[in-house]
Amino acid sequence: MKKEILRWQVGDITITRVQEIEAPGMRFILPDATVENLGTIPWIGPYVDPAGDALGSVHSLLIESADRCIMVDTCIGNDKDRLPMKAWHKLQNPFLEDLADAGFPVERVDTVVCTHLHVDHVGWNTRWVGDRWVPTFTNARTLVARPEWEHWSAEKDDLTQTILGDSVQPIFDAGLVDLVEVDAEVAEGVRFESTPGHTPGHVAVRISSRGEEAIITGDLVHHPAQFAYPGWEDKADSDPKLADRTRRDFMDRYAGTPTLVIGTHFAGPTAGRLVRDGDAYRLDA
Ligand SMILES: [Zn+2]
To answer: Which of 47, 140, 169, 209 could form a disulfide with 13 if both were Cys (CB 3.0 to 4.6 A apart)?
Structure first.
């Protein structure tokens, strides 16, 4: 099935979603995201499958302005040794072809942003060519928040070292990485917003143009159901208390504003406006 390309206009800036994979079942991250609990959310239809199970998406978001082409997050990647994550092991997806079809051949990307350094956000930083991992986006600077790199590069467990070794270290070795602050300006109208907790140096990405605003969540929230249930445990958070505070602050900050909230793992329409709904929130299309 051909994957749907989604686009949004924010002033003079265009944001495009290019999807790598979409799949039902998010209880490995959100244990409370059962079919039963999801069924209590009247507006959840676009974000669940026909059986009512939570849909998750892995996609990149491309930000285009007059003179820039910025890719936010680089998904899982092909050929990578990702056991014990079987569903992500040695993928063979036509993601780079899909990217080119959407108007983004790899040479065109001038900046890559990783909201954080988890496995599903760094994968296409590299690809397997000949006998080694080589940078995919050779014309791009890759921006990583300094505390994010400092945290993960000090982690010695095998899985982290494998992920950094095949997807991050090669772009450092090629001199393509800039370590930046958690509130860095990426380009005119595009900046990091510090949102720690999911990981220590996690950032959201804020886009502003001609009085219009959008925010790319990164993984501070994984599924829109969390707007209805802000207190749900998120098992992927490295600091659950801080992540909870960041999530609630984010919802409080953007609810009722015209800012377009674009989810990094939201399936279906992927974006909407956050509004207050009783004690919690709702994502309006
Ligand atoms: Zn993720």
So the answer is: 209
Neighbours of 46 (CB within 10 A): 15
The alpha carbon of 221 and the centre of ligand 1 are apart by a number of angstroms equal to: 9
pLDDT of amino acid 104: 98
Protein residues placing their CB within 5 Å of the ion ligand 1: 120, 219
Q: What domain range includes position 208?
A: 6-284
Instruction: Decide if 1 is inside a domain.
Output: no
With respect to residue 136, please indicate whether it lies within any of the assigned structural domains. Answer: yes
Residue ranges, the chain, pLDDT below 50 = none
**196 Cα–ligand 1 center, Å:** 14
Residue 214 tokens read as 């959008």
Ligand 1 center to 58 CA (angstroms): 7
Nearest CA to 207 out of 17, 67, 15 is that of 15
> Structurally, how many domains does the chain consist of?
1
Establish if 58 belongs to a structural domain. yes
Residue by residue, DSSP assigns 44-85 as -GGGB-TTSPBEEEEEEEEEE-SS-EEEE---S-SS---TT-
CATH number at residue 155: 3.60.15.10
Amino acid making up residue 157: D
Residue 37 lies in a domain: yes
Residue pLDDT, tens place only, 97-118: 999 999 999 999 999 999 999 9
In this prediction, residue 285 carries a pLDDT of 85
**β-strand partners of 204:** 193
How far is ligand 1, taken at its centre, from the CA of residue 198, in Å?
10
pLDDT of amino acid 153: 97
